[in-house]
Amino acid sequence: MLRKVKNVIKLLKSVDFEQLEKISKKVDLPEVLGAVSKMDEGQLKMAMKMLTGGNKKRTPPPINADFYDVSAKLSETDRALQMRVRSFLESEVKPIVNKYWLHDEFPFEIIPKLAELNVCGYTYQGYGCAGGSSLMDGIIASEFGRIDPSIATFLGVQSGLAMGSIYLCGSDAQKQEWLPAMQKLEKIGAFGLTEPLVGSGTAGGLTTTCRREGDHWVLNGQKKWIGNSTFSDMTVIWARDLEDHQVKGFIVRKENPGFSVEKIKGKMALRIVQNGLITLKDCRVPESDRLVHANTFKDTAKVLQMTRAGVAWMAVGCARGAYENALAYTQEREQFGKPIASFQLIQNHLVEMLSNLTAMQTLVFRLSELQDEDKLKDEHASLAKVFCTMRTRDIVSRAREVMGGNGILLEYNVARFLADAEAIYSYEGTKEINSLIVGRSITGFSAFV
Ligand SMILES: Cc1cc2nc3c(=O)[nH]c(=O)nc-3n(C[C@H](O)[C@H](O)[C@H](O)COP(=O)(O)OP(=O)(O)OC[C@H]3O[C@@H](n4cnc5c(N)ncnc54)[C@H](O)[C@@H]3O)c2cc1C
């Protein structure tokens, strides 16, 4: 009898009296209470379970953002490298990124440990590089993006754009001088293509010029948005030859007279990346620092094809980071007495996020297989860049949405992804430019103006 009284008290405690008042307008409460008093213990327990949902805090399933188990396709060695990269990022980068992002500064202290990972120039043969697969290179970019798109961009500029320009277009002497040191991050590189007045139209519209004078070249012009350039040892500068009007590439050293950099301030995305506005004023570069295999813009485009695939992977990481943080939040955060993850409308957001993320993961996986089979075309890389960065924008925005107000606070680890996705969406060819590349390939008509 005592237990029955205890159970009735427990049941009454679990009742929401505001709700009870509303219910009382619809049902005859004294009659209901009369019925409750006649219940046996088993029936009472059942009623309590129905009203309180069992009142047990459920342990949510572990977060699995690799829903189709793409990682299972990796060899044991590659999987081990993925885990090593993840562990470095979780322990060394994640705890400090919000602070650096907020202050618009670069965490130089991570460079020695990042170098130890041995992932810089991962796909290149020789020069101390690992000679690994493009697939693994993509997985690494994605792991970096998952923790911080800024550090992922730093690595993308160093390993892809700067080292890639030398690897694809440089002489053996240039490769010997720069690649081993850059692989170890002892020397830092940057890549200067975009100009203040020419962004999307660089293929035909570069205004930075180069002019040969004996065994030197003289460079004049400006480059905008150049990542790492405020502290890099060298910047690859793309300039139009005044004589044959073709685009040529140069290794411009930081100490070169006529080369100056001003930091671009006030960014609302990728704030850790140090972007510079470069001015080249009668900047003299020896012929030995001209990239010997960069003779037209087509050579520049070879570098961009390779790095665009990397940006698609990085976007996957950015989306994944936002999704994982948002899902964890919805499992913890309670409203109306329940975790918000139990609400249908929240689950709809989460499932849409996961659907897009899974589509992106499987797409970039095949993209890298094509790259490893040496079958990658510009339009493949462009399609992946467009699709992944567009879907990432949608995912980070939903991640923010399911977190309510906390979604815009840095400390909840989604706001940074939300902002950073904007820059990833625009750099390395905007959505429009990459769509035009794919459009030209599928229709046979070039719609470039
Ligand atoms: C954070 C960040 C880092 C970057 N890092 C580097 C770097 O390291 N090195 C480097 O060289 N550059 C870098 N960039 C530059 C980047 O590649 C350019 O911002 C990008 O190519 C777009 O150029 P833009 O910003 O001048 O835009 P614009 O070319 O002025 O374009 C503005 C808008 O017009 C649209 N548009 C332009 N032409 C067409 C057309 N024909 N048809 C339809 N729409 C069109 C564009 O899609 C865009 O929506 C970086 C940019 C950012 C934001």
CATH superfamily of the largest domain: Butyryl-CoA Dehydrogenase, subunit A, domain 3
Parts with pLDDT < 50 across at least 5 consecutive residues: none
Q: Quick one: CATH class of the largest domain? A: Mainly Alpha
Q: What's the helix count? A: 15
Number of self-contained structural domains: 3
CATH architecture of the largest domain, please? Up-down Bundle
CATH fold descriptor of the largest domain: Butyryl-CoA Dehydrogenase, subunit A, domain 3
Mean pLDDT: 93
Category by helix and strand content: alpha+beta
Instruction: State the distance separating the first and last CA atoms.
Output: 86 Å
Helix content: 40-55%
| Bound ligand species | flavin-adenine dinucleotide
Q: What gyration radius follows from the Cα positions, in whole Å?
A: 28 Å
Instruction: Determine the oligomeric state from the structure.
Output: single chain
Largest sheet: 7 strands, mixed
Portion of residues in beta strands equals: 5-15%
Order of helices and strands: HHHHHHHHHEHEEEEEEHEEHHHH
Tell the overall outline: elongated
Number of strands: 9
